[in-house]
Structure formats: C-alpha cells, structure tokens
Amino acid sequence: MTTRILATEFDYLKPATLEEALKILAEKENVRILAGGTDVIVKMKVAGMTCDYLMDIKGIDALDYAKLDDKGVFHIGALAKLSHLEKDPVIAERYPALKEAFHLMASISVRNMATMAGNFCNASPVADSVVPSICYNAVLTLASVRGERTVPVEKFFLAPGVTVMEKDEMLVDIALPQPEANSGDAFIKKTRVRPDIAKISVGARVIRDGEKACFCRIAMGAIAATPAYLEETSALFVGKKVTPELIAEVAAHASASIRPIDDNRTTAEYRVAIAEVLTKDALTEAWRNAGGEL
Amino acid sequence: MTITEKKNFRLVGNRVPRHDAIAKARGEQLYSDDWVMPNMLYGKVLRSKYPSAILKGIDTSKAKALPGVHAVLTWEDVPLNQEVTKFGQMRDVGGGFEGLYKVLAHGKIRSKAEPIALVAAETQELAEEACKLIEVDYEVTEGVYDPREALKDGAYLVSSEDDTNRIMDTMIRMGDVDSAWDKCDLIVENDFYATPHDHAYLETESGMAWIDENGVITMRVGTQVLEHYRTIANVMKMPHTKIRNMGVPMGGGFGGKEDITVETFLCLLTAATRRPVKMVWSREESIECHSKRHPEYLHYKTGVTKDGHVVAQEVNIVLDGGSYTYCTPWVQMYSTMNGAGCYHFPNSRCTSVSAFTNNTFSSANRGFGATQTNFSYDRQMDIIAKKLGMSPYEFRRMNVLRNGDPQHTGFVPQGHVALTELLDVVWEKLNEVPKVDYLPDGRKFGRGIACAQMGYGRLCFLHDNSRVALRLELDGTVTLRAGVPDLGGGQGSVLAQIAAEEFGLPIEDVHPYVMDTHLTPLCGTTTATRQLYMSGNACIEACKPLKAALARKAAEIIKATWWPVTTEAGYEWEPDIANIEGQLEFHDRKIYYAPDPQKCVDFKTVVAHISNEGGELFNEGQFNAPAVEVPDLSDIKGQILPDMTYTCHGVDVAVDEETGEYEILRLIAAIDCGKAINRNSCEGQVEGGAIYNLGWVREDLHWENGITKANNFSTYLIPTAVDAPDVETILLESRGGIGPYGAKGVGEPADNSICPATVNALSDAVGVEFFCTNVKPEDVLKAIKEKNKKNK
Q1: CATH of the domain spanning B32-141+204-249+257-289, picked from 3.40.50.720, 3.30.70.1060, 3.30.70.1340, 3.90.1170.50
Q2: What is the pLDDT of residues B126-165, one digit of tens each?
Q3: Cβ count within 10 A of residue B473
Q4: Could you tell me the pTM of the whole model?
Q5: Closest to B778 (Cβ–Cβ): which among A5, A197, A270?
C-alpha cells in the first residue's frame, strides 16, 4: 500500500454536460464519479477501490451552484465546494448548524476540493454535512437518463459506502427547505485533533411553540452503520413543556438507543457516554436558539 | 560550576536570520523527493508480510522478468549483509553497545519492518508491481510483543543470531537503598508505562544515489549521521573514500534519521543497475518501518520523611528494544542515568533491562530514554507531594539537585544547576493567574508542574569530537565548512553566527557550507543535543589561530604594537602575542586597538596583507569532549555525560467532567540554555519541544501484536496548529554551560517535563492519578466515573 501512486488502471472521462454524464452512467459499467476527489482518490490509492471509468464531473459548470429558488428553498449543486458553502451568507443566516459542520470538517485544503454531494455519496457513517442536513429535512435529487427522483436525506443511506442510488443515477441537487420562524438548531462534534473525522457528532433542530416544541429532529454521526436520524428520541421532545429535566430524559433516551462500535477514533463505551452529554448540549443550544428559555 | 566570563556580544544572543531561511521560506530549498536525474530509476523495498516468521525462501524470477525492472536484490546480493551498528563514534566501544545491522532479511524475520528485497524499476508503479511479483515463503511463528514476556524463560526467541532476547542490563546505585527504607516515614510504589512515539517528520526517509564519473557512489540523503558512510562502504565492500553523502538540509529528524534509512538500499540498487536511483518511503512505510521511542515499563519505589525530604528510591525499568539493537543500549544508559531523576536522593538504585520483541525496532527519539523516566519520576513526585500534603512546588524545590550535588553515578556536573531558579520562575508565572476550582464555563481547572534534567553531548566513553574549517576570503568575507547535518534545526547557521561574532563581521559575511561526508570536515552526529556544544566549540577553536594572526598583522598595520612590555631588562617595545590579542577587538568589519579605538584597520585590509605575504588564511579546528573509559555496566560510576540541561514546565488545564475532554490553557516552558546564541532558534527548539512532548500525551500508534494500525497522518494524529497552545517560553541564561559562551544544549532537553506537567495538571483537576504517558479524554472520563462510583 502506498499513498504515493495511483496503482490502478482506468479510463478517464470528462463530460461537459449533465446529459452526457448521465448517458455515460447509463451505458458504461463500473463508473466512479470524481467531484472533489478527496475520498475517491484516497480509496483508490489505499483501500483497493477500482473502476473501469473515472468520470470527472468538474467540467459540468451547471452543477456548481448554491442558490435560493422562488419558493424559498435553498439548493446546493453537486459541485458546490465545502469552502464556498462555509462562507455562503444564506447558509450562515438560515442553516447555522450546517455552517458549523462545514467549518469543523477536515482541513482547509480538503474543504477547498471536497463537495457536499461527495460527502453524501461517500456514505460514511461519520459524514459531517449529513447530520445537520437530516435535521433540516434535506431532500436529495437523483438524476438519470430515466428521469429524476427525490429522496429524503434520512432514506438515502443503506450501509457504509452504500446508498439507494442506482448505478445509472447521480446526486445532482441537495434542497434545504426554508426554516420556520421560532426554529433553532445546533451541531456539536468531538474529535481527537481539530481537523479529524468525528468520534461522534450530534445535530439538533427544534421549532418552538411557546414553552413546547412542536418539531424536533436529532441526528447523530459515527454511532451506527449510517448517519442516523433518532426518530423515537426526537418524538419524545415534542409536545411537552421544555425543561432541563425533559432535555435530560431525551438525552438519556438518545444514549440508550444507540449501538456504536469501537474503532481507531474511540470506543463504543465512550460514544454511548458522551452521546447523552452532547444530545443534552445540542438540545439546550437549539432550544435557546429558537428563543426558548430554560 | 563554571560561569563563563561576560563579553559584549554583537551578534550572539540576537535573533539572526539563518543563511538558508529565505530559500526555505520561498520553497527554493529542495526536498529529497524534488531531485531528479536523467535515466533515474525508482527504488522500492519489499517488507515482511508478518511481524514474526522464518524466511524459507524468496523467488524473484517473476519480478525480474517484468519489463522495466532493472534489479531485484535479496540478502545474497549484499556484499556484506551483516555489519555492526555504529553511530558515528570515533572509537570502537564494542561490548553490548554495538548490535547487529542486517541489511536484508535472512533467517528469522523479526518485525513487519524487515526488508525482504529491493527493486529498481523505470517507474514507481513498476517497482510496486515488481514487489507484488516476488514470491516469499514464510513460516509464520508466534512472536513475542511485550518485553516482559520476552525476558521470561521459554519465551519465543526473536533473533536467529542471538540465544537470548535480553539486550543489556545496567545498574546505577548510590548510598544504601536497602537499609534506608527504615528511615522513611512514607514509602510510595507505582508502576508507570511510557508508550511508543513516532517522530512524524515533515519528509519521510528519502534520497537518491548515483555513481559519479570517478566511480564514487554519491548520495543526497537527509540524515542525522553523515558518518554512516563508513558502514555503508563496509556493506558495499568499497573503500571509505568512495561512498559520499551530500545530505539534504530539509525534512526533520528528531532521532528517527539517526539510524541508516535508505542509504544502503540506494547504494545497492545504483551499484546493481549503474543508474541513478531514487527512493522515497510512503508515510505508511515510514511509520511502520522506522524506529520508535522505546516503550518502557517502569517501577518506582520511593521513600520520604514526613517533613518532605527524599531518602531512598528504587527504580526498575524494562525497555522494549523491538526487533534490532540499534540505539537501545545508548537509550538505556540515558534511562538508567535519569532513573532517579533530578532529585537529591542520598540512596538510590536504578536497574534496567532491555529485550528484543517482534515490534518495530526502538531507537532514538528526541529525549532519548530521559523522557520516559522523566514522566515517571515527576509523576511519582507529584503523587508523593499530595500524600504529604505539600505543594508540588515546595516539595520539588526542597529536593531538586543544586550546584555541587552529585548525579546518581557520583559525578558532580561542572555546569550550573538551575532547577531552583526554574521552579521559582515557572511557579511565579503560573500563579499570576489565580488557581480556581472551576472555571466560569463549568470546566474543572487543574495546575501541574514538572522539572527535568537531560544531558547534552554524547556519552563520554565515545570520545566525541568535532571539526570546523574556516577560510578567509580576499574581500574580507569568511567561508565556513562543517559536516554538520542540519535537517532544520539551524545547526549550520549558528556556526556562521559564532564565526561572525568572533571576527566582528555581520552575519552575511560568513557563509556556511555544510553537510558533505567528503568535502566538509566531519562534525559528528546531529544527535544527543551535541552540535552547538561540540561544533560551536570547534568553531571557536578554528577561529583562534586566525584571530591571533589577524591581530598580529593588524597591530603591525595600525602601529599598535609599540606599547611597552615589561621584561627582566626593564621594558621593550615588542609585545607578546597574548597581549596583542587582548588589546585588539574585532567588530564592524574592523580590527580596533582597544585602548585607543581611533587606531583601527579594515578586516579585509588585514586579510590582504597576510595574503600578500603568503600567510595562511585557513584553519580547521577540532574540539574534543571529556573522555572516559566504558563504565562497568553492573555498577556505573563517574562521568557519563559532559553536562546537563535543566527544564521546568507549568501547565494549566480545563477539563470537561462530562466528556473527559481537556484543553491546555497555558503552557509555560522554562529552560536554562546557558546562553542563547540564536534566540529564534533557541525559542523554536523550546516551543517545538513543548508541542512534540505534549503530542506524546495523545498520540497513539495502535500497536497490536507487531502491527502498527495507525500508520499515516489520518490515523496517527499529531497536534495541528489549531490544537497547539501558545507556549510561554522563558529562557534563563546562567552562562553556566560548557558550550560556546557558556551555552547549554536545548534540542532534546526541551522535549522533557511537558508530558508529566500535563498529566500532573490533569490529575490535579480530576483527583485521579494516571500512570501512562498517554491520557485521552476517554481515560479521563473513565477515571472520573470510577472515582464517583467509589465515592458513592
């Protein structure tokens, strides 16, 4: 194994349009899509990933965008880079937990290359940008020559490295709905050193209706085979007067409901222990950001 | 103790830009991997698939048949496959100190780092492909991965060349430990563990070699030991005149480039192919296959009186030498010497034993055996202070070594012992911020302090020396030549600074040519924190006769020589040389007659006069360190190292008691450097050392039965710029060292006392003792939970 060379044979393709790219996906076997390349190239060098065709989509300028549509939905194109999104004023204003996730991801040099869509398609259980996207009810658009379909982010992942995408499909757009008034959110990540992959990450978003929450989404990274939406735990927070006791109860439930593993970054035991602390902190912060008091 | 006389410095002590700083800042100084040559091949090492096995056979035929592959070499192709390890010493010390250097695997495979075969091919990809085609027949064996297991009867034998796993035993004692325990009011026993540690240098082991037009195998390889050319020549069965290394002044070493790395492999491949060969290890290969800091298991038993005086200490150390001897015996000497620490124990005994295991070999790493014991003895002191109800500062201050106190071998160092001053300055600085129980953000606060000693200069029985050459140019500038390996520490530049100071020239007037085995005088190794001490002194030696000649000539030119000197006959007008030297000063590119500074002459005018008259404008000076005989290892006495450098560190931490996460709030690093020569370099060493040693607290190689699981920088995590705290550096300048102008060495001592200070602070914060150098948030949280459970 060596990181110095790319010791695998493949044909390099560089389509100029989305149509051309989708046609390649439909017609050829064993195609890998190259966007930022910060995961794909590393996997090809050291993790035995192979392909017959490496399709570089960086030439498809139409996929490089981050913009609001006329319905107020924010769209992020497949080629939008993390470093651009980190500085995007709409994200800063509307989706601060996502901005925080971008800011804490990897190193500046990686963020200058990596795309958000790539972070999704790599389908790591730890993917930082996925966790807040679950909280924001993001919707993904998958395109193929057969047409387009949309998938809610929490239904996108099946297993580490595996998604619901068919072999001829490509993730082209990530849509984030307009946040409701009185909503608040938070993202917390723990690492060994600053630019590291998370030991565990927690995202939370709530909508406040007086002293109660009428909506809650808690998501976690690095505690299961895929980034996880803690649906049952989230439901516990809704419809009750928000108190420190309620937050503690929900946090304990979160911790009890996960079954993480040991790995190089930390232990299952530690993940279970701090899942409770981080859920508590994330909920508290999200509630306060929603204008709630404790 | 000596305090070097005061002198008005013009350059020494300043922040002087290094001669190579601009090139490095602009990226114009090339790394090893940047060099290419026409017709160049790429070299690659095939490493063992298993950490423990017997090599039954190697079939290279398929690899050799691959088009574009020009050489596939195994042990049978090496002219001398087994040599004795040397580290540039000028004298054979034999005994247990010089172990086996085996070039390519033969017999038992001792670790996963074992090189099986070498390949040279047209491209990196082909070299990689050829390695895959080499068929190796292994008989996999069980192996042994813990030195304590390796030392037991019937343990798996790591080596096929030795009949034991035991590498060396040493012992140092003072007073009578066994009968001293009765005098102690409190006896504390603890076991400590110091983890392996990687150097994580900027450039991995790399370089290139080619055969020059006269048949000399010439290399550009970044190394800390140019003198390895001798061993390499022996391996090649070539004369020492025909193996040359020009060095690469980049990449960092930290001890990891003290052993031979790519040199022999490159020479073998270039000799076999008659073409230039480049070899660059990947980060994975580097982390898996170069040495690590010795993992050590340390048992401490310490006795004190109830009023806080240390009485007796017994230390037993087991070192994991890994697969080959390399620097293990030398590192072990440092551990044993520093076992009892920088405290004045009237009775002490330290025994140590090292063993082979099937782990990657252990060897030099900044701190060299002193850091492992430093962690342990300064944790032990902290634990005892708490049990006595004393402040960690007061307890240390009462017991640290002072001027005139002997080391545990009975030797009294000549240099100044600054431990009390260092403790005072760090404690005072720490207490500028009042200690609190909790911070306003809810985190628990902790404060820790630790001190240390570590030698500078090599072990005295190696009879170390260094040489520096100077040539006065006709325009009044100075060419300096020194075979000083400088991988970024500034060891070359500082010599120019010393020469410029001596000649009264601005720094830009002295240019150093460094690091060439055959064109620069050999300065010895860049190890053991010895370059400034050894080569700095050699540089001053080199200056002396030139300055005397310049002074004589200047005196003549400015008619300063005609002052009266008392003689038996009354007086006469011919002064002696000593008087001339004392009366003439070198500064501002001029030579002045001190009693009457109006009388002066340009430096270059004096050089021109000497040149015109056929005088010598060059000199090579040598400096010899104190030399002793090899000690009796079962009862080491006397002087082992030339002198000691002392450090003290203070750390404030904030601990999140719910997650175990902690943050270093402050890191105060104090050192007695004797005299800072280049202040930037000196502070750089102290700050770099602090972060290096702090990294040891969190870095983890994830060793599992001889396999290094964290083998790159996404798994083996070193502190990044955002993780590193600001280091508040305090340089004490006692002028009490034996280096130039009273300087002491700082490079390795700067890598002591941070780890124990940090762990002491963590223990202070959470009220739990930690016994391993590695303390992660996971460990802190677990300890807090266990403590809370116990208290319930």
Answers
A1: 3.90.1170.50
A2: 999 999 999 999 999 999 999 999 999 999 999 999 999 9
A3: 15
A4: 0.95
A5: A270
